[in-house]
Amino acid sequence: MESAGSSAQADRPMSFVKRLGLSPKMIILAVVCLSLGAIVALALNREATPTRKPVAASRALEPTRPPLTPAEEEYIGALWPIHGDVERSTAVMSLGEIFYLNNDPDMSKEKFKKRVDAALATYQRAKEQLRALQPPAPLQKKHDEYVTAILLLEQSATERLKLFKDGKIEHLHAAYPPLQQATDKIRVIGSDFWPGEFVPH
C-alpha cells in the first residue's frame, strides 16, 4: 500500500509535465535558462551597486591638517576682514558689469563707474593692509600669492576705468583675464585658510 501510494505521488509531477507537453530536454533547458537568468541578474545588481570604501580606511587616507600656531591664527584672523572687503567689492563690481553690458536701465555708465572706483579703492587699501601684515614663515608663500592676486585685481579695475575715457568695450574684455587669475588665486588660498567658505570643484 505504502509503495503504491508513494509511486502515485512520484508520478503526479510527471503527469503534470506531460499535460504541459514538456519533454525532459525542454525541462532541463528551462532550468538552465532560469539559472543563467538568475546569475546575470545578480551580476548586474552587483555592477549597479557602487562599491563603498570602509569609512575608517578612507579617513585614514585623508591628510590631516596640522594645528595652527598662535602666530598663524593671528595672521589668518587679521587677513579675514581684508579678504571679506575684497570679495564684496569684486562681486559688486562684477554684477555691475553684467547689468551694464545687458543695458539694464538701473545700471547707467556713471553708476557702473562708481562701482569700479569703489573696487579699485578697496584693492589699493587691501594692498597696503597686506603689506603691513607680518605673516609667519610657513604662510609667507600664501601671503605673497594673496598680494599678487590683489595686484591683479587692481590691474583689472584700472583697465575697466579706461572704458569711461574712450568708451571702448574692449577694455572690459582685457580686464577679464587678470580678474579670473586673481579670483582663482584667492579661491585656493581661501579654501586653505577658511575651508568652509568655498565649495570644491
SSE layout:
Elements (H helix, E strand, L loop, with lengths): L1 H19 L3 H25 L6 H7 L8 H32 L7 H24 L7 H22 L1 H4 L3 H24 L8
The radius of gyration over CA amounts to 36 Å
Listing every helix as H and every strand as E from the N terminus to the C terminus, the arrangement reads HHHHHHHH
- Low-confidence stretches are 6-10, 51-55
Distance between the ends: 80 Å
In the CATH scheme, what's the topology name of the largest domain? Four Helix Bundle (Hemerythrin (Met), subunit A)
What is the helix content? Answer: over 70%
Give a short account of the largest sheet: none
Reported CATH architecture of the largest domain? Up-down Bundle
Q: What's the tally of helices? A: 8
Q: How much of the sequence is in beta strands?
A: under 5%
Number of distinct beta strands: 0
Task: Tell me the overall shape.
Answer: elongated
Structural class: mainly alpha
What does this structure look like?
The chain has 201 residues and is mostly helical. The protein has two domains: 2-61; 70-193, Four Helix Bundle (Hemerythrin (Met), subunit A). The protein is 78% helix and 0% strand. It is built from eight helices and no strands. Helix 4 (70-101) runs antiparallel to helix 5 and helix 6 (140-161) runs antiparallel to helix 8 (170-193). It is elongated, with a radius of gyration of 36 Å. The protein starts with a helix and ends in an 8-residue tail after the last helix. Mean pLDDT is 79; it is low at 6-10 and 51-55.
